Structure to design on (738 residues):
C-alpha cells in the first residue's frame, strides 16, 4: 500500500510518503467486525501465515498461531499482517530510495517508534475500511504495538492480545541492544549507515548482534538441554575455532541472519524497543499511562523467559486491574525462554484459542468452516 | 620469576621458557605454613592488594579482601599473587617475544588451561620453598584454579576457598564467551591475532567483548537500581548515540578496557573458562572427579549471580559431600550479581574472615599484629 499523506513521527521527523507491505488472511465479514491485526517483532514481517506456492521454507513466522483451524482461525477472522515502517521486507525503510536525493535513505532514515508504527497501521485499517479491530495482537515488540493500540486508539480495538512482552525495556534489555548496535556501528563496512553506496554490508557486526540476540531469546535451561557442553568434533581443538555445538549454532544463526537482514533496520527496531515506555510520560506510573485503554486484554508470559520475564507482564496486569480493565493472564510453564511465544506450546495455544473463540462468540461470527 | 624448565601444556604444546609476574604480601613464617595463593580471574593480575606509592588508582584488585586487618590478614598470612601464563600484565603471553622467531607470539601462543596455570603456579611455590599452601583461593575463574589445585596437588593445599565459581561453564556461559571472541576475531584490526606487527589493536572488537562481559557481571536488579531507564541528557535524541545512562556506562567500560587489555589474552582466558570441566573426564560425574581432593573447602556464592549461580556452587558442595569432604558453604544475599565476589559485601567478608581465623588457629599463627 502506498501512502501519500505525510506521517509525522514521534521524534519530530516527517515521512513524506511511504509504502507498507500488507498481507491478509481470511475474509473481512460484512459487518467489518472480524479483523485481527498481527504486529511483528524484530525480524519478522507482514508474512504472518501460510506459504508461497509449495515452498515449505516460506511458512509465515506465526503460521502455527494464525490460519484455518489455528488458535486465530482465519475461517472466522480476517487477519492483517503489516511490515512496519523502517523494516526491510518491502516496506519503506533505510534501503529504500529517498525521493529527495534519489539515493537509499541509509543513515538519514528517521528513528521510528512503536507509536509511529501504530499510527501507520491505523492508516492501513482506514484503507481497508476497518473502523474497529476485533483484536490487536503480537508478541515481544509486537506485544508492545498491541498495547500501544489500546492506548492511542482506544475506540478502535476491542481486544488486546500481547505475549511475552513488557511495558518497557529494563536497563539490562537496553544494554544488550546497545552492545548489538555497537557491534554493527563499529564494523568498518557500516560506513556510518550508508554502506549501500559502497556495495558492502556490515555483515560481521550484524552477525555478532544476532548472536547476542539469540542468547537472550533462549533460556539458560533450554540451551543446557539442547546443547549442554557437547562438542562438535568429539574432542577439544585447543584453538578458537568451533569446539562446542553451541558455538556452531550461534555462528550459523549469525551468518544466516546477516545474509538477509538489513543492519540499519536492526538499529531502528532495537531503538524502537528501547524507547517504548508509556509510563515514562506519567512519572513512571503505569496505571496512569494505561488509563485510556478501553479494550479487554489477554496477556501471556513464559516461565523461563528472562528477556521479558513474567514479572514484566504482571506489571501490565496490575496496572490494568488498577483501571478496572478486564484482563486474562496466563503464565505458561515452558522451557523455551522468550522464543516460546513463537513456538507450538500446547497450553499457550489453548489459551489463545479459547480467548479467540470467545471473541468470535461475542461478535456472533458463527462456527468456523 | 623466570622459568627455564619447559612446561608441557594440556593441549600438547610446550612452553620452552617463560616469566611469571609474582607479588607477595606479608611474611612467610619459619614453618612455611602460612602461604595463601590468590588466583585471579579474567582481567586481573598478580597485583592483588595494596598500592604502588601514593597512587590510589593502583589499588590491587582484591584489596578489600587481602591486607593488614582484612579477611585474609597479611599480618598472619603470606599471600602470593601470580599473573597467569598468557595474561598481559608482565607474564609471558601473546604480546611477549617468542625467542624462536624474535617476534611477538601473537596467534602462535598456545591455548592454556586452568590446569596449566595451576602447574605453573606450583613451580612458583617450589621456587619460594613452599611445600604446602594454607589455602588456594580465588573467585570466578580464580575459583576454578583453587578447585583445580585441590585436585592436581591434593597434598599441597590445606584449604580451598572458592567464590562465585562453577564446576564448568554452561552452554549459555560459553555462548557469551563465543560472541565476545567473534567480536574480537572479526575486527579487521585483529589480523588473525598478529596485530602487533601492524601497529594496531582490535579495539572495537575488544570493546564490544567487554561490554558483553559487563552485562553478565551485573545482575538485572543491580542494573535496574543503578541505571534504570535514566537518560544521560534528560531527553531522547532519536538517534543511535548515547541516550540512556546504561549505554554511556557500557561504552565507557568497553573503551577503558580496550585501552589496556590485550585482545589475544581475552581470547585465551575465555577459552580457559570454556575448557575447565573436571567432571568431563569422568562421564560428567563431578563427585568422581573431585574424589582426589584432600583439602577442606569454603565455597561462597551470591543470590543474584546469574553468570555462576548459587546452583553451580551447590553442585560442587554436593559432589564434595559425596566424598565426605569438609565443606563450608555460604550463599550470600547480594544485589550485585557476579561482581559481588569483588565487592565489600559485609556478610561475605565476615564468612571469609572467620574461615581464615580458623585456619590461623589450626596453624597456630597467633593473633594478628
Amino acid at each position: 500500500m502506498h501512502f501519500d499523506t505525510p506521517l509525522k513521527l514521534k521524534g519530530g521527523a516527517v515521512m513524506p510518503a511511504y509504502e507498507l507491505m500488507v498481507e491478509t488472511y481470511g475474509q473481512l465479514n460484512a459487518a467489518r467486525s472480524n479483523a485481527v491485526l498481527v504486529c511483528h517483532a524484530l525480524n519478522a514481517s507482514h508474512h504472518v501465515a501460510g506459504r508461497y506456492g509449495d515452498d515449505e521454507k516460506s511458512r509465515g513466522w506465526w503460521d502455527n498461531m494464525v490460519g484455518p483451524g489455528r488458535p486465530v482461525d482465519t475461517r472466522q477472522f480476517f487477519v492483517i499482517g503489516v511490515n512496519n515502517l523502517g523494516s526491510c521486507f518491502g516496506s519503506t525503510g533505510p534501503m529504500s530510495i529517498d525521493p529527495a536525493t534519489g539515493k537509499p535513505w541509509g543513515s538519514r532514515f528517521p528513528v521510528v517508534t512503536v507509536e509511529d508504527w501504530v499510527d501507520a497501521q491505523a492508516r492501513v485499517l482506514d484503507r481497508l475500511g476497518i473502523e474497529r479491530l476485533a483484536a490487536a495482537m503480537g508478541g515481544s515488540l509486537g506485544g508492545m504495538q498491541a498495547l500501544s493500540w489500546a492506548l492511542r486508539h482506544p475506540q478502535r480495538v476491542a481486544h488486546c492480545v500481547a505475549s511475552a512482552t513488557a511495558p518497557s525495556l529494563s536497563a539490562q534489555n537496553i544494554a544488550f541492544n546497545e552492545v548489538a548496535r555497537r557491534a554493527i556501528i563499529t564494523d568498518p563496512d557500516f560506513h556510518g549507515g550508508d554502506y549501500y553506496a559502497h556495495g558492502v554490508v556490515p555483515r560481521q557486526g550484524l552477525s555478532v548482534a544476532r548472536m547476542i540476540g539469540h542468547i537472550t531469546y533462549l533460556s539458560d535451561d533450554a540451551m543446557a538441554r539442547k546443547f549442554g557442553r557437547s562438542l562438535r568434533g568429539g574432542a577439544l581443538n585447543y584453538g578458537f575455532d568451533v569446539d562446542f555445538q553451541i558455538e556452531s549454532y550461534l555462528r550459523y544463526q549469525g551468518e544466516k541472519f546477516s545474509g538477509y537482514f538489513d543492519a540499519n533496520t536492526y538499529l531502528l527496531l532495537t531503538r524502537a524497543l528501547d524507547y517504548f515506555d508509556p509510563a515514562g510520560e506519567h512519572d513512571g506510573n503505569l496505571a496512569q499511562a494505561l488509563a485510556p485503554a478501553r479494550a479487554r486484554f489477554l496477556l501471556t508470559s513464559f516461565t523461563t523467559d528472562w528477556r521479558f520475564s513474567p514479572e514484566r507482564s504482571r506489571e501490565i496486569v496490575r496496572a490494568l486491574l488498577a483501571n478496572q480493565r478486564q484482563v486474562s493472564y496466563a503464565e505458561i510453564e515452558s522451557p523455551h525462554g522468550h522464543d516460546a511465544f513463537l513456538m507450538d506450546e500446547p497450553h499457550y495455544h489453548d489459551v489463545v484459542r479459547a480467548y479467540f473463540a470467545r471473541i468470535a462468540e461475542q461478535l456472533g461470527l458463527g462456527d468456523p468452516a
About this structure: Chain B touches chain A through 56 residues (CB under 8 Å). The mean pLDDT of chain B is 97. The first strand of chain B starts at residue 2 and ends at 3.
